[in-house]
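Researcher: Please predict.
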Amino acid sequence: MTDTPDTALKILIVDDDLDVLSAHARFLRVEGFEVSVASDAASAWGRLSEEPFDLMITDLKMPGDDGLALTQWVRESLPSLPVFLISGMASTPEVVEAMQLGAVDFLEKPV
């Protein structure tokens, strides 16, 4: 983590629902976090390859590669990055798989 008294934690939020993405980003910014956003896994991979983050929050169900694929990539490429998954429509097997892939937690929408 890059947290120091003078540095806000950097969070990447990934969600294909732009209203949800905007609301989560706005809330976290008000709370003092530095927030970047991505609307899909491919964009998230690009952001994660370009700059360091302290936490990633990703939606589970997205078009193209989903949150599970993104979490697996993070575990392989950035093993120390904590990942939270969120979803409004997750099944128990998906939650179990997310945790087995190394997700720190799984939150149900609305968060």
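Model: The mean pLDDT is 90.
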